[in-house]
Amino acid sequence: MATPETETASTSPLSIYDLTVAYHRKPVIWDVEFDIPAGSLVGVVGPNGAGKSTLLKAAMDLIPRASGRVSVFGKTYRQNRHRVGYVPQREGVDWDFPVNALDVVTMGLYGKIGWCSPVRPSHRRAAMEALSRVGIAELAKRQISQLSGGQQQRTFLARALVQDADLYLMDEPFAAVDAATEKAVVEILRDMKDDGKTSVVIHHDLQTVPDYFDYVILLNMRVVAHGPVADVFTPENLNKTYGGRLTLLDEVSNAMRRRDRSL
Amino acid sequence: MIGMLGETGWSWQLDGWIVLVAILCAVASALLGCFLVLRRMSMLGDAISHAVLPGLAVAFFISHSRSSLPMFIGAVIVGILTAFFTEWIHRVGRVDKGASMGVVFTSLFALGLVMIVQAADKVDLDAGCVLYGSIELTPLDTMSLLGFEIPRAVITLGIVTVINLAFVLFFYKELKLSSFDPSLATTLGFNASLMHYLLMILVAVTAVASFESVGSVLVVAMFVVPPAAAYLLTNQLGMMLLLSVLLAVSSAFLGHLGAIHVPSWFGFQSTTTSGMMAVAAGAIFLITMLCSPSQGVLVKLIRRQALSLQIIADDVVAVLFRREETEGEEPKSASVTENELIEIIFCGRWSLRLVLRWLDRRDEIRMHDNRVELTEKGRLRAQNLVRSHRLWERYLQDYAGVDPSRVHPQAEKLEHFTDPRLRQQLNSETDAPQIDPHGRPIPDEPDFDSNID
Q: Coil, strand or helix: which one is A34?
């Protein structure tokens, strides 16, 4: 694992160089490289299994990378962890856990509160404010499994808001939400952009990409294209992204695994 | 209760200590158990408490003594290894977590048994004692502390309980976060695997400390059963911790009482306390499962029954209301017999009688000569229902595109769940219609509906 301690020259919110991630020696993303301009709203688009979630998780050291380096505002992720907010996929969470919406939002402040210190009323007030900003203040005391899909997503978004990070990595915040929530999420993303924050958002609905984002990364195991939506979001690039899996890469990785087994 | 204790020769000198040992063990385990249950690894407590056996044996072989410290260290090390191997086999071998746990702890447990049987010729390291312990003997093994003779088990378990309590209090926030969302915890700078292993270390320490006195059966029960019962009773984590401690204390106390009393009812001598405590915990869980306010089986049953009676009551007044519409002259009145009602609404005679008595007492119907009539109050309730029904029919047919032959049965269901606010919405959505799809008038909204609840 290459994690150079030296600062890179770039101070882009997220800059990824030569990133490869493999699960059991089968590469999931391959030689990914890009820089993101500060203060932009970035969509990450690609077919299922393209490695979109893997990309975000590897950027935050949640899964080990086979090679590559990640820098966040010019430093390593570890050094700048407090400037990064993560909104995980809704499916990844145990919604029967005995906490209410306010508790979940307050968790966004735990980093600031620090080890072993208790949550104080001022923290809860901040969490309440975030809940009302996403429009569900009246549901604060509701156990999380009793929230609808859209309300759960808003809770996650409120938690990201209280974190007050500079770079947000969001894993499908629009998955299975109602139209009203989608609109609310987009508005908040735009507000955040106006505050100079950068968001990297995994997105599925190609139709809305030009509306929602100003920068796009087309991903299918490797970066097919990245850049301003107007330049990059073209039919040819989409064809390349969605035109089937990269069979040669699949083949070579299968060959690698066969070799591995026969040794 | 105190009287009962006196009669059976309850001695605080003896039974008091036994119950205290049991309570300390139960509380120490339940505190950690809450997080095991929430992390879906309840069985890890089981696995660890079995797997520490080879640790005990190795420590014995090395130190040639049954003194506590080497045993303790050996067991804790193996306990932690269990957690570690489970994780490792799960990851590297791509085996499901439960299976990898099963592989690890059965192998280690068996290894431990083999070693203990080997050692058995030379010492009394008794395998049976490991399973169900010897809590009855704990008051005899004392040491002096500040001039008091205190059983050693009380001191050990007391220390462990204090450590666990401090752990849960100091790391409450971190435990909550890393159990709920490990990746978020890690991105916020709280290392989730560090929390995992801290928890595992304490589970191992608790299991080993409880071993001697109460055996592994009780530890396993206390790790899982009180927290699982508490989980059924609340959806607040803090409350869950508190309740699991209370339930743990009660099962320890009831268990000891039960061990003394229950066997004598059947003409036997008193039985092992730790076994009975686990049984008591199981019984408490069963009661909770039946009676929990949100998930309880009994509560659900009662609620469902109440709902079906409520629906019959609705149907009774609606039947009368419709009769009044068709055959009633001014002033409107109509009546119906019990048998007719049974045929029209397809309900049992006993449920119907219950409902009629209830409606009568609420002054919504009048009964004379076996015939039922609406009162003014009942008419109001019926008017609301019929209004809901016909508005629904309009809505379903004209706005939801439901087949005209199907709107009546649908509306029949929905009418029971329509409150005034929803009815108001229906009314404005359908542009306040005057008649339903079958040409019958939709009654007006009553001026007040305070007495309909």
A: strand
